[in-house]
Write a structure and sequence with these properties.
Blueprint: E1 10-15, H1 19-24, E2 32-36, H2 46-59, E3 66-70, H3 79-87, E4 93-96, H4 102-112, E5 116-121, H5 124-128, H6 130-134, E6 139-144, H7 146-153, H8 165-178, E7 181-184, H9 193-206, E8 210-213, H10 219-226, H11 230-248, E9 254-256, E10 259-261, H12 263-283
């Protein structure tokens, strides 16, 4: 399926070491899960987490949810073994933290073979190399690691995220230029729905496909923010109908609600309807 039609609205981090959390994730209405072997797993659980996660994935039950496994960095004592383990798991992609350059992805690909790769974009060097990273032949997705990035950039927190805009924009440009998925960073205050909605709306307006989440309580707000609204799907249908009517009459453009509709608007309208249809199917429990 074209990633522009497949939804990535909500991408939830789940600790790979906790069987109860791994089980609960099977029933959550998320589009994708990042099964985490890195930050969410303590040092003394790192090795055992691989087996716990492999067992959960082998048991299945995750339906149409995209299954992504985040490993520890290849510069750590666990990274290479994580990568080899993930290559044998029932996962859709492997996520590498702190990607600085395509060379980091080459090292991972040597261990994970044909498995699709996603990259954590969370370092200043990674921002400067975003286009080259996005162009890597094994890469299919990028995840903004805004907490680590803010730390390295020594920014102050602002609700409008102005200090991070350049970095977000560079990664968005790289993802769109290379046709890969890109999801926004986490919102830390998981009980602040208004703040979450504002950041989701900002990310959606910028062009992100969805948002990474740290808590199941954030799922509903995020799914709503990144899904086509009723108004958007209604407009899309009317644009398509008007354009087809204009074409049948030998005209190249149509007008809907006082605005010109051209080929490019129809292409966007078709994408909106395709995404809305897949979201509906996923909500009904139909595999993608």
């Amino acid at each position: 399926m074209d990633h522009r039609a497949r939804p990535y609205r909500s991408v939830l981090y789940i600790p790979g070491s906790k069987p109860r959390a791994l089980d609960k994730a099977r029933s959550l209405p998320v589009d994708a899960i990042i099964f985490d072997l890195e930050d969410a797993v303590s040092v003394d659980e790192k090795v055992n987490a691989r087996g716990t996660l492999a067992e959960a994935l082998a048991a299945g039950g995750y339906g149409a949810r995209m299954k992504i496994v985040r490993i520890n960095g290849l510069d750590t004592e666990w990274g290479a073994d994580d990568a080899r383990a993930v290559a044998g798991m029932d996962a859709d992609a492997v996520l590498l933290p702190k990607v600085n350059s395509p060379a980091d992805l080459d090292k991972l690909a040597a261990l994970t073979g044909d498995l699709a790769i996603w990259a954590m974009m969370e370092t200043p060097r990674g921002m400067l190399n975003a286009d080259a990273i996005a162009a890597h032949p094994k890469l299919t997705g990028m995840v903004m690691g805004t907490n680590d990035l803010a730390k390295d950039l020594q920014t102050r927190f602002r609700a409008d995220r102005v200090p991070l805009i350049t970095s977000l924009g560079l990664c968005l440009l790289a993802a769109k230029a290379n046709g890969v998925v890109i999801v926004d960073g986490v919102y830390n205050a998981f009980k602040d729905d208004a703040g979450l909605k504002a950041e989701c709306d900002q990310g959606r307006d910028m062009g992100f496909d969805g948002k990474t989440l740290i808590h199941p309580a954030q799922v509903d707000v995020t799914n709503t923010a990144f899904a086509p609204s009723e108004a958007e799907t209604d407009l899309a249908r009317r644009q398509i109908a008007a354009f087809e009517e204009a074409e049948a009459a030998g005209q190249g453009v149509a007008v809907v609600d006082g605005r010109i509709v051209e080929n490019l608007h129809v292409a966007t309208a078709l994408e909106i309807l395709a995404k809305a249809e897949v979201i509906e199917l996923m909500a009904a429990g139909v595999p993608k």
